[in-house]
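Consider the following input, taken from an annotated entry for AAA family ATPase (Bacteroides xylanisolvens).
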Amino acid sequence: MNQPVKRKRIPYGMMNFIDVREDDCYYVDKTHYIPLIENANKYFFYIRPRRFGKSLTISMLRHYYNILEADKFKKWYGDLYIGKHPTPERNSYLIIYLNFAVVNAELNSYRQSLDAHCNTEFNFFCDVYAQYLPEGIKEEMNKKKGAVEQLDYLYKECVKTNQQIYLFIDEYDHFTNKILSEPACLEDYKSETHGTGYLRSFFDTVKAGTDSTIKRCFVTGVSPVTMDDLTSGFNIGTNYSLSPEFNEMTGFNEEEVRAMLDYYATTCQFHHSTDELIEAMKPWYDNYCFAEQSYGGTTMYNSNMVLYFVDNY
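Applying the prediction step yields:
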């Protein structure tokens, strides 16, 4: 009896890079963008539609730069581009990761939710990096009130042990976009993102930290609206969303989609050719182009929808 051909798992809906690698999933290698990110400005904004691979990209970067995971580099990255071309900064940072998608979008409770999320992540930071941080930092940090004061305390304390922080913020505008969807909340939204508003104060603190131990930031979202409103609060950030250099960093180009279909055609019983499948997918999942200079050339497929299609074919 013929044994079934072993094939890589289709990572539909998966956002954790380590799970993708350790579960032997099909991974479209985007690690060649790491040197480009390092050569770009250090405070990196990146806007893309939902379900376009932003969170998986952040996950890949977080683990690449995490000082605690140097011993896993070969296992997780060895067969990828960056495994053969590592950069000087790999595994050299303490990582703070914030996911604003979990912050409550109700205007009257978002501050408490933001504080709670940041406190959880800041405590995790203190626990996992205890060997690199001043003694007692966690207890003192928890005496501070709210995300703004706690972040201010953390980055200043890291000076004492000469540590560098890489700050990742995923879906930075998730809850503000929901607030903006309610016309009655427009004025309240403005008060939070301008002047002395709480969200504005948070990004003011991030900015202050970049003059100290916050050496890099990578921030993703789906809309530049909140970014524009916070600009003077974080005017050191550079928006690379429309840069041709990063047009293909998330999503799949057609070459990547074809390679995936060709691979699964050898391990699954496909009833259509790759060309036929591309013809079926293209009107629905293709035609994204984010850089004006790339218009008329490479277009991008929505990666989540491509994986869904292949998983359900």
